[in-house]
């Protein structure tokens, strides 16, 4: 029996959840749904993959399904603001699935595609609008949307908005909203700017926090490979010889680098594509859908493009380049530990990365095991290793990797 029935959701919503195989609520859903049904403002601290979308969308859908009302032209009863086009599209797909059969009017708006279809949909009045900041501000400025009917505002991935330079846009949008509303703010982390924003827009909020560190420490099997920069592609090809890694997400620093890696994999008949802001929206959506469908085995992405992407059953995450911000490390590897499942995360580190690696280890409170027996292992110099600082708890011993290319290993030694 579905445990979602305890929330007194509409029968049609329960049926849709059953069809998707959702029987037991995740911790954030269990904590948030009753509070939101009760009308509370909410501050949620949780990373992508914890079930956050259902946590905030199910109460909205349930409320609007039970309480149909006339909506002003060019307005919406709820606004969900999110940083990227991929995440906006993903949220909309889930909402349309949960709300199937309830007759709610929904629309997603973002840049990179024609605006007229979006304008026409908004003109009729909406129950739920999912939007990215840039296109929404454009629609506000041209008078194609107002917020006379707004009841609920959701600000999703608030820290990503800050990282991507959308903070002023978000504040400008909030200034256009009615003061009387239910407000939900979700963020994976709480930098000072987000704390100030939360205090400004939330009224007597309830706080729910699902820590990313728990996912990192308990569910993801982490490894780091010490190597020369020139050996990164050969090591990647060596790792991908393992057939168990059926769906692989690779993070790299630049758009150019993502294209190079994807092309290198395609040349050896490994289905791969790159995902970054330099691609058209149609190309990005196709690559993401093919990865979800397992038509592509490997997706190579930059942090900006991949932040917030929720794809099931990723078997391996590879940090081709270490992130500058340790928070991004947690976001990245969390892509492979979903719904209580375990996952594998590998990081490539050159000698100049030692300081970044140490910062990450201190952030997660553990030393990441080094794979010694691999074809391209490099012993770092004592001078480089002197920058290492003690982590909060004892790390694991170096790991021996079972694999091929033993001749290469002998050559490197």
From TrEMBL:
Biased composition (Basic residues): 389-413
Region span, Disordered: 385-413
Domain Helicase ATP-binding: 33-208
Cellular component GO terms held in the UniProt record: cytosol
Domain of life according to the entry: Bacteria
InterPro entries listed in its UniProt record: DEAD/DEAH_box_helicase_dom (IPR011545), DEAD/DEAH_RhlB (IPR044742), DEAD_box_RNA_helicase (IPR050079), Helicase_ATP-bd (IPR014001), Helicase_C-like (IPR001650), P-loop_NTPase (IPR027417), RNA_helicase_DEAD_Q_motif (IPR014014)
E.C. no: 3.6.4.13
SUPFAM superfamilies: P-loop containing nucleoside triphosphate hydrolases (SSF52540)
Keywords associated with the record: ATP-binding, Helicase, Hydrolase, Nucleotide-binding
Residue ranges occupied by any DEAD-box RNA helicase Q domain in the UniProt entry: 2-30
GO molecular function: ATP binding; hydrolase activity; nucleic acid binding; RNA helicase activity
Enzyme superclass (EC): hydrolase
Keyword 4Fe-4S: no
Coiled coil: none
Renumbered ranges of motif Q motif: 2-30
Domain Helicase C-terminal per the UniProt entry, residue ranges: 219-384
Stated family: Belongs to the DEAD box helicase family.
Protein name: ATP-dependent RNA helicase RhlE
Organism phylogeny: Bacteria, Pseudomonadati, Pseudomonadota, Gammaproteobacteria, Alteromonadales
């Amino acid at each position: 029996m579905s445990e979602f029935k305890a929330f007194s959701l509409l029968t049609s919503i329960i049926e849709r959840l059953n069809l998707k195989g959702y029987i037991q609520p995740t911790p954030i859903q269990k904590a948030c749904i009753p509070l939101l049904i009760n009308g509370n403002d909410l501050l949620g601290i949780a990373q992508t993959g914890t079930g956050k979308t259902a946590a905030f969308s199910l109460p909205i859908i349930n409320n609007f399904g039970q309480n149909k009302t006339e909506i002003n032209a060019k307005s919406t009863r709820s606004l969900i603001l999110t940083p990227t086009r991929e995440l906006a599209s993903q949220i909309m797909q889930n909402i349309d699935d949960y709300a199937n059969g309830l007759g709610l009017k929904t629309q997603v708006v973002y840049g990179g595609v024609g605006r007229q279809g979006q304008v026409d949909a908004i003109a009729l009045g909406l129950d739920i609008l999912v939007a990215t900041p840039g296109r929404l501000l454009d629609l506000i400025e041209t008078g194609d949307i107002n917020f006379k009917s707004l009841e609920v505002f959701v600000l999703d991935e608030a820290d990503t908005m800050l990282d991507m330079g959308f903070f002023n846009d978000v504040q400008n949008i909030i200034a256009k909203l009615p003061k009387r509303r239910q407000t939900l703010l979700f963020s994976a982390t709480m930098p000072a700017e987000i704390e100030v924003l939360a205090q400004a827009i939330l009224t007597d909020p309830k706080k729910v926090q699902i820590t990313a560190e728990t996912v990192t420490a308990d569910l993801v099997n982490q490894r780091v490979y010490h190597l020369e920069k020139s050996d990164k592609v050969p090591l990647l090809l060596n790792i991908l010889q393992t057939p168990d890694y059926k769906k692989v997400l690779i993070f790299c620093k630049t758009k150019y680098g993502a294209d190079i890696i994807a092309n290198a994999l395609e040349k050896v008949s490994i289905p791969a594509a790159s995902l970054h802001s330099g691609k058209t929206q149609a190309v990005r959506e196709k690559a993401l859908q093919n990865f979800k469908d397992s038509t592509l085995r490997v997706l190579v992405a930059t942090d900006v493009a991949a932040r917030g992407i929720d794809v099931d059953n990723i078997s391996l995450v590879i940090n081709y380049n270490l992130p500058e911000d340790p928070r991004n490390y947690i976001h990245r590897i969390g892509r492979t530990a979903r719904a209580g499942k375990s996952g594998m995360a590998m990081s490539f580190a050159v000698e100049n990365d030692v300081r970044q690696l140490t910062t990450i280890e201190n952030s997660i409170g553990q030393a990441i095991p080094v794979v010694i027996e691999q074809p391209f292992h490099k012993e770092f110099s004592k001078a480089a290793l002197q920058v290492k600082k003690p982590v909060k708890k004892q790390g694991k011993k170096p790991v021996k990797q079972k694999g091929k290319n033993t001749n290469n290993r002998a050559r490197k030694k």
